Amino acid sequence: MRRTGLEFSSALAVATLVAALVMAESLGLGFHDPDGSIGPTFVLLPLIVLLALFLDVVPRAAIRAKSWRSARAATAEVWRERWPAANLRFMIVGLIGWYVTYASVRNLKGFVPFANHQLYDRDLSRIDFAMFGGRSPAVVLHDLLGTTVAAQVLSFFYIVWIVALPASLAVALVWARRDRVSSWWVTAVSIDWVIGVALNYALPTLGPIYDRPGDFAALSHTSTTALQQSMWTERLQVLADPAHTNTVQNIAAFASLHVAIATTAVLVAQRAGLHRAFVWALRAFLVITMVATVYFGWHYVSDVLAGLLLGFVGAWVGEKFAAPDQVPEAELSELSAADLAGRSARQ
């Protein structure tokens, strides 16, 4: 049997879930659905899967069907072609593993203030100021780019990232299916998350926006600034009553996972030989993400540099565990025949 490439990411899902449950028990805290505000995951996840299957099968069947009477037969034909049992297993295992890892990592990140009370914001701030001649890197960007139009543009791209990541995983698991790039991408993202949360525990920080809010007072109001305020409010709620809240606080700056995953995306796309225009678009997106994360004070410059390194590690390790390249059945038969012939000759 050819391996699917999801074995390692599934193992990470189990390991992070166990770690999160053990940590919750040891700290006397609860394990919560990090996205519970938009509905229970056990309802949302099946709906997402059903929608993805609908969009994958129905348009193809509609094109193939010659009339309403043949639509049912066309749908069944497309379903058999697109979704044999192996492909269904790949999608379901990948989606469940992805969400278990994500939810576990979010909970582990939420436990950081209770597991490590020390903060390293002052240390990383000193490094930032030293690299920028005694000035705040964010303020330097504000002076260079302005605080109105640039804020709106960078905020747009930053918020797009939040939507693009789960969308990319859905595309990889539903539309690409059982592809080397799909398993590589899913595994690499899981690695980024797991190493990232380990770094949160080793070097907990709040980030410049919460440590030095005055540096960002001149920025115009955007969706990003609203999100930052919401996250701070959630953190205060959790710290005030950790045992009785269903909220998961999400503030821990080192290292930048936005930068890490964007870096991983560039490397996977480049090494997988995807279209050059797509690779360059991802590179541009990475640069914008790096600028935005410092501009809005989400992260220190050292967080960004650590995120770049983490992205390289995620892509490299993910490639080691990705599914092997698929060999066409006809070619596989020829290889098997040649192999048998070679054995006979040797005997």
Give a short overview.
With 347 residues, this protein is mostly helical. It has helices spanning 7-27, 41-64, 71-82, 85-115, 121-131, 137-145, 149-176, 180-202, 208-211, 223-240, 257-271, 276-295, 301-321, 329-346. Helices cover 73% and strands 0% of the residues.
Question: How would you describe the overall organization of this protein?
Answer:
The chain is mainly α and 347 residues long. It is built from 14 helices and no strands. Helix 4 packs parallel to helix 8, helix 8 packs antiparallel against helix 11 and helix 11 (257-271) runs antiparallel to helix 12. The relative contact order is 0.13. Residues 327-347 have low confidence and may be disordered.
Radius of gyration: 23 Å
Q: Which class do the helix and strand fractions yield?
A: mainly alpha
Query: So how many helices?
Result: 14
**How far apart are the first and last residues' alpha carbons, in Å?**
27 Å
Low-confidence stretches: 327-347
The overall strand count is 0
Beta-strand percentage range:
under 5%
Observed structural traits:
single chain, 347 residues, mainly alpha, 14 helices, 0% strand, disordered C terminus
SSE inventory with pairings:
Blueprint: H1 7-27, H2 41-64, H3 71-82, H4 85-115, H5 121-131, H6 137-145, H7 149-176, H8 180-202, H9 208-211, H10 223-240, H11 257-271, H12 276-295, H13 301-321, H14 329-346
Helix pairs in contact: 1-4, 1-8, 2-3, 4-7, 4-8, 7-8, 7-12, 8-11, 8-13, 11-12, 11-13
